Amino acid sequence: MIRFYFHPTPNPAKVALFLEEAGLPYEAIPVDTRKGEQHAAWFLKINPNGKVPAIVDTNGPGGPETQVFDSTAILLYLGEKTGQFLGTDADRPELLSWLMLVATGIGPYFGQAVHFQYAAPEGLDYAINRYRREAERHLQILDDRMKDRTFFVGESYTIVDMSAWGWLDRVPRVLKDDRALARWPNLTAFMTRMAGRPAVGRVGTLMTTHDFKTEMDEQARRALFPSNFPL
């Protein structure tokens, strides 16, 4: 059994998608980040970085329990554990390259674009412009990659597709435009195909099963942006 710690955000969604696609038994445990639960001592023992997702595999190879945090690490761990969604041996270099592009490019730039547009003090136009432009640049890289392709790597569905899907689902929020993804037709086609996967629908249901806090009050700001508050 896998204990899966999540909040309804892109990185946990990727892991949920793997769990659903692979049919692995798991217990979904909500971590309400706007209440600061990610900073609780019990959770920091699982992920010292205080972020979701994280998993605890009670049947892992590391002993009685194996703890893994960071969505990319979890996807690789689960792929290697199950032997699924890793492509062929020949695909491995490209799989790692595209997986890391999502992890080190798409994720951080999308996240910072959202932060500076929705949470930072007003007047930081330079930062907003930089992160939006970088988000758009990375989207173009992915769109170019998907020209005349069904999957990002090789000829089969892999963890790269899952990882990209988690963030591409948030493009309207990242660019503050409900129709933003239409600018990248190959990614639009990819997301349409992904929407037809039953596991994607099940992830959508999972992400709405818990009543997470939605108010962005002082408690939430302190939990999400502790560096903005003096010690």
From TrEMBL:
Record key words, sorted: Transferase
Presence of the UniProt keyword Transcription regulation in the record: no
Family annotation (Pfam families): GST_C, GST_N_2
Domain GST N-terminal: 1-86
CDD domains: GST_N_Ure2p_like (cd03048)
Domain of life of the native organism: Bacteria
Naturally occurring in which organism (per UniProt): Tanticharoenia sakaeratensis NBRC 103193
Keyword Transferase tagged: yes
Residue span, GST C-terminal domain: 88-224
UniProt protein name: Glutathione S-transferase domain-containing protein
Gene Ontology terms, MF aspect: transferase activity
Annotated PROSITE patterns: GST_CTER, GST_NTER
